[in-house]
Design the sequence.
């Protein structure tokens, strides 16, 4: 039995995190055409990033007992994933 069974891992959330297009165009002369809607993989990775930031916020606030992690969470989440989700 292989360590990573592709049939059982290619469903559910992992299927949603797999992009349907390459991240970078292969030719420098090709101008990328962005879709009207946010791609499903990008949207799902934004949610994963927000979730990881929330877990980091909870652990950091518990360990340090101050609002420093909260400010970092707000800054990183607003600049990255929420910006993509709201202003695509």
Sequence:
């Amino acid at each position: 039995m292989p360590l990573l069974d592709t049939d059982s891992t290619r469903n559910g959330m992992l299927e949603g995190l797999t992009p349907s297009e390459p991240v970078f165009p292969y030719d420098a002369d090709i101008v990328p055409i962005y879709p009207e809607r946010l791609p499903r993989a990008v949207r799902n990775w934004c949610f994963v990033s927000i979730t990881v930031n929330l877990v980091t916020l909870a652990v950091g606030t518990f360990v340090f007992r101050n609002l420093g992690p909260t400010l970092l969470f707000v800054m990183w989440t607003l600049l990255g994933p929420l910006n993509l989700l709201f202003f695509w």
Remarks:
- The CA atoms of residues 19 and 57 lie 28 Å apart.
- The first helix runs from residue 6 to 9.
- Residues 37-88 form one domain.
